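[Q] Does anyone have a clean structure-token version of this?
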Amino acid sequence: MAKANSLPFRQIHLDFHTGPWINDVGAGFSAREFARVMKQARVNSVTIFAKCHHGHLYYDTQRAERHPGLKKGLDLTGEQVEALHREGIRAPIYISVQCDEFAADTHPEWIVLGADGKPASPGPLGAGWQILDMSSPYQEYLAEQTREVLKAFKPVDGIFFDMCWDQPSLSNYAVEAMLREGFNPEIELDRQKYAHKVAMTYMKRFYKMVKETAPDATVAFNSRPLGNLKEELPFLAQVEIEALPTGGWGYMYFPKNVRFARTFDRQYLGMTARFHKTWSDFGGLKPYAALEYETSQMIAHGARCSIGDQLHPRGFLDPAAYDLIGKVYARVEAREPWLVDAKPVSQIGLFQIPSNAYFNTGGSDEGATRMLTQLRQQFDVVTNDSRLENYEMLILPDLVALDDTMIKRIRAFVKNGGALLVSGKSGLNAAGTETAFPELGLSYDGASPFGVTYFRFMKGFDADAPNTDHVQYDTGLRVTAGAKTEVVAKVVEPYFERGWRHFCGHNQTPAAKSTKYAAATINGRVGYIAYPIFQSFANHGNYPLRLLVRNMLDRLLPEPVLRVDGPTYLEGTVMRQGKNQGNRTVVHLLAYAPERRAKDLDIVEDIVPLYNVPLSLKLPKSPKKVYLAPTLEPVEFEYLAGRVNLRVPEVRGHAMIVFE
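[A] Here you go.
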């Protein structure tokens, strides 16, 4: 059996949120069949439940919270652990934190109170979770449950604590603690700061509890904002990125966040689910192509895979679900020799706009991730704390606020030969009055008075761009270029700002005149775009915006690690394995196209192969051989001017090209 601290590639997150009104819990459970199905589906780790959101316990306990419908004498959690261990499968244990219906109903004084004085609850007629206050005695109640689990299953393979966000509260317990610790409960920011302190304190406490009894156990706190990883790293044995694309997260959430998580010294995994939509979608089964895409995307970024499911209350697994999971995990297992210890190869550091949100969809981060992915650029998401020297280029998208220290660091980066692309207000000083980087070679004249303007590619910079003025739907800035700064696109303004007193047509006012203002400039290895171009791309998907960024990257980063000629939905990542795995470079190509098949749902149902895909990889010396994994089929190549050039014979969803 794999060590608990070696994160497996093929995991199941087995939800079991079972209401007390169900009276035949575990009635159909067979430990032997349970483990057999998991083993046959190529699963090597299953997160099983000790405690669910309903607040009920599923192991052998005298506590009142034991599920009232659990079959008499059945230690469901214990039998699952033993059965999985017999088959060499890890069995980390799930504990719900801030969602506990049993505790909320028996101790309503422990429920979070909002600023309006109302409890954090769906109300007496609502079907949903009540939220518990970790400032109240509930925290000790949870600690007692956790200690019992740690003793019963010592040493645990791991603990997965769920529902752990920063939760402000104005309960009597929270107010008294805030006053005692110098926070003002009347001020929203103080309430948020105190909530964050509470979360950090209990995470430290529960992490220590686990590690004292099981030093090799994995520990995860779910529902945390990934932007806070640096502070929380001491309490995390691994980073888990929950991202059900069809459940509201979308297909850009995981690649955006994994590019940040992978910059830290922790193993990381992606968590999707077998459901058609979101959690506990009983009877909802995802198409095979979608689950193949989601797991392929995980391993293409060096992540382990976790697929969510929910055990039926009677304790049996859905055969169709595990046929699907087994087919997907057989693919992953066959590719693992080329996945172990693989590290991403990145040229670009994309600055993140800080967010305390857990469910951070949309925005400039997502627009930039989507655009750079479509351009097959190799990039990480970085922050002020990142090692900038790891990258050849930095991108500051739209609204990145920088202090004087960071401005100095970035200027030093450019002085040492690094490339820089800045967009929108990221190029301004803290006061927003002038550009922060003299290297841009620009003067700033304030925000445009027009909500909608147009930009025109300059001659020599208009490759593939239609010969027209391209609409920019979001307000830009007015900048003028210095004598040595090249204008590569200029602003064309409309006749007037659309309003009730004067308007023209159904939407925006037409373009009227070319201006002195620059839409995009290049000065040496520094580029600037006068629009929130990445936010615009996230909102509107207007492809000339991508052409503008692509043409600027061609100038600022003329030798990208990877070049692939294919449709824009074709993704490419470059991973590198070290000496223990043969110093291999592995290129992953993913050709899946999520489609809008319902009002609010994108899905992949079909895998359409691509043939003879041109690929060029930058390598310092010629490889001895190139082949496809896992088939070991050799691929002909040439090595010319520091690049390996070849054609990938077929990309049927996911192709792995290995350079040794």
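[Q] Thanks! Anything notable?
[A] The radius of gyration is 27 Å.
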